[in-house]
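User: structure tokens for this one?
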Amino acid sequence: MDQGPRRKPFRPYRSNNASRPQGPRPGNQRPSGMRPAGNPRHSVQNARSNYQRYTMMAKDAARRGDVIEAENFYQHAEHYFRIMREQNS
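Assistant:
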């Protein structure tokens, strides 16, 4: 039996963050979500291949008549185009 959307459990607000250590992390100095800087040429190649891939998927979606999906893929392609342009200048 479906009882509707599930709610997240209650979490009390902690104003002083007492349980979190302060200062830099020992050993690993960058946050876990960041990747190390790689070869810039390699990044341009990835951006170019992703741009081509998303452009191709956008054209396929447009041929099928799915305008919303095509626009989504074109926006992804534009993102990679901007990355390529930024790294080439």
